[in-house]
Structure of Sulfatase:
Amino acid sequence: MKKGILLLLIALAFGSFISCKENKKEMTETAQKPNVLLICVDDLRPELKSFGASYISSSNIDQLAQNGVSFQKHFVNAPSCGPSRYTLLTGKYGPAGNNALFLRANELAKGTEKIDPSMPEWFKAYGYTTVSVGKVSHHPGGRGGENWNDSSIVEMPNAWDKHLMPVSEWEHPRGAMHGLANGETRIKSSEMDVYQTTEGDDTIYPDGAIANEAVAQLGALSMNDKKPFFLAVGIIRPHLPFGAPKSYFDQYEGVELPPIPHPQKPEGRTTWHGSGEFKQYNRWGNDPNEDKSFAEEVRRHYAAAISYADAQVGKILAELARTGADKNTIVVLWGDHGWHLGEHAIWGKHSLFEESLHSPMIISYPGMDQKDTKTDAMVETLDIFPTLCDLTGVEIPKFAQGESLKNILNNPTKKGHPAIAYYKDVSTIRTATHRLTLHKDGFVELYDHTTKDRETKNVADKHPELVEKLKQELQNKLQQG
């Protein structure tokens, strides 16, 4: 009897040992999955030293580029915050308005049709802790309501374990989104200066608080060795109004900025617009298209805002290294779209010209073979979701409409693929040689990027066969959505 009990106890103990060993193995395998750090920067055109702008001070982002692959020809899928972030966060083409993710949330709430999971939701299902800080979806903090802080109206249901937006003295996320120094919020646009520089440290503008919260979250997440993390951080600058501490503006004293290329308003029908977002602010009666000295000031303040944003990126990357999590973390830096600084006589985004759609993207991860490499492979924002899945060993969802860039990361000389974008009732396709823009009524713009004219001369009437070929390719792509 005693012998039987002893054998039973030994068997139970052995079974428990095996079970614990298996559980420990399972947890270890989960912990060994790479973390993801996604840094989103608002209104960031590829005006960085690592992207050829030698006059810009962007040392932290440039250091990231030295540790990874910088995609010199990355194009977003929409020239506006909301729909561009929709494609990033869902891996699918979607509505063209800034409320794209809220529309998706409404459909989820109805429960009448199947809605594919978002990227953070997908990673959460594979054992990741998902956290967002700052402006990751269209509203900083990911909530709706009058001041964007109503927790009953969530922009991305089921996506984040935490979705955080430190507002500091700006009172609420809406106030911080367009905040200037020391708590100034946008009440009446015409009474808020289009640019500003003020003495003080980084916390006198909202991104200082966002970076500090991101650092705190990294510290906490890196201590959990049982679950990998997916941390997304959204930096607001250089979004309008262009505000940054004076120390960043001073970096551009005496710096010569290059001439604005093709600054004339285009002839004929295009997606040109009157720069309404920019002109709503107080400009002291100045028009940068007519006043060269004012245009220069605008550009310098945009540059200062980039350097300020770069400093916040630096704090986040420094904390990643301090915790040691950098040894097992994939880092993606992504600009949500471009921004005209006088090209085509536009000051802003919202066109389907190159300047609105071209933004920087950098991917870095431990052990990658191709560090400090620039690639001219053409890629689009839609590719980020499947790429992160491929790099982490997470299943690539069948609904993702982009392509994994892992092969380009391994061989940056590969060519990539055409990039699609849309805004309102107009869509465009960018190939290695041309851009075709198709209006709803059938009107076509075709630009030849192999010539010096580029996007200043519509050559559609000279290339009818190419027009038809690209129209078909564009329409086929968009029908996937």
The CA atoms of residues 4 and 27 lie 34 Å apart.
